[in-house]
Design a protein that fits this description.
Length: about 140
């Protein structure tokens, strides 16, 4: 069985740690898991990622603060979280920036953390133990 964390943090990984954590924080946010989002924001901070950028992860597409590589990672993460279908133009950008190994690492990590986010929400683990945010707003009695 694969120990995902040992694999993820191995010195053998080719994907830069800040890009990995940026993608995983975004995956947590898109998947609606406070736990996954928070844990990877903490790791970004430990890696020296600027606090103002950590705060902009939810609205990344509307911000100009991201480098072209960071924007590619964030857009790719969003596509993976939306079901895995990546537009051809975006995948061409990904291939222009990353090696095949880095693409595999990024894809594997993002998709497994989306799965982790789903598990955290389903089981209401730690930060995700909260009421459902979508409820029926009962119609007024008029």
């Amino acid at each position: 069985m694969l120990d995902r964390q040992a694999w993820q943090f191995s010195a053998e990984r080719q994907l830069a740690p800040t890009l990995r954590e940026l993608a995983l924080a975004r995956a947590g946010w898109v998947a609606g898991s406070s736990f996954v989002f928070t844990q990877h924001c903490k790791l970004l901070r430990r890696l020296g990622f600027p606090e103002d950028q950590v705060n902009l992860i939810p609205s990344w597409a509307a911000e100009s603060t991201w480098s072209p590589t960071e924007r590619t990672v964030l857009a790719y993460t969003d596509s993976l979280a939306a079901g895995g279908r990546v537009p051809d133009g975006l995948f061409e950008q990904v291939k222009a920036v990353f090696s095949d190994v880095e693409i595999l690492e990024l894809t594997f990590m993002v998709t497994t953390y989306i799965q982790s986010a789903t598990i955290c929400r389903a089981l209401r683990l730690e930060f995700d133990d909260r009421p459902d945010p979508v409820v029926d707003a009962k119609p007024s009695p008029n």
